[in-house]
Specification:
Mean pLDDT: 82
Shape: extended
Order of helices and strands: HHHHHH
Structural class: mainly alpha
Helix content: 40-55%
Largest sheet: none
């Protein structure tokens, strides 16, 4: 290969070093493992590029965003009662969507649901619409039906 590329005067565009074997990735499939990684930003660096101030969702500089998180939480849940009401509403919506979207395969044991598409995404969209932009549930339902 190198001789052919040299003959064509293309060898400078390529490297002929053998690739190094990549380490086998460690898959985190427990809540404890995932939480440990998200809680230790000094060992597990953000892989996304930081623009400007950064983002409270990307764990780039934890202490820097503590005040941001506190302001957001207070705006969304101004009291412990508000958080409790939201938690009960959210749990109810998740339960309702699971019941609505659960299906069975013929001759196969168990129930099935596309938890991401039919439950998490829909309920999260309702939360965002209600808490962040005050978009009515009826309007949101019409939008979601088009997806």
């Amino acid at each position: 290969m190198k001789d052919s590329l040299t003959h064509q005067k293309l060898e400078k565009k390529y490297t002929f070093d053998r690739p190094q074997a990549l380490r086998v990735p460690k898959v985190l499939n427990t809540f404890t493992g995932i939480k440990a990684v998200f809680s230790d930003s000094s060992r597990f660096k953000v892989i996304y590029e930081k623009y400007g101030y950064g983002s409270i969702l990307m764990f780039d500089e934890i202490a820097k965003h503590d005040a941001d998180k506190a302001m957001v939480l207070h705006a969304l849940f101004p009291s412990p009662e508000a958080l409790g009401l939201h938690a009960r509403w959210f749990a109810g919506q998740v339960t309702k969507k699971i019941k609505e979207k659960t299906w069975k395969y013929p001759n196969v044991n168990g129930n099935y649901v596309d938890i991401a598409k039919d439950v998490i995404n829909v309920v999260s969209a309702h939360v965002s619409a209600d808490k962040l932009v005050w978009f009515s549930a009826a309007c949101l339902s019409r939008v979601l039906q088009t997806l």
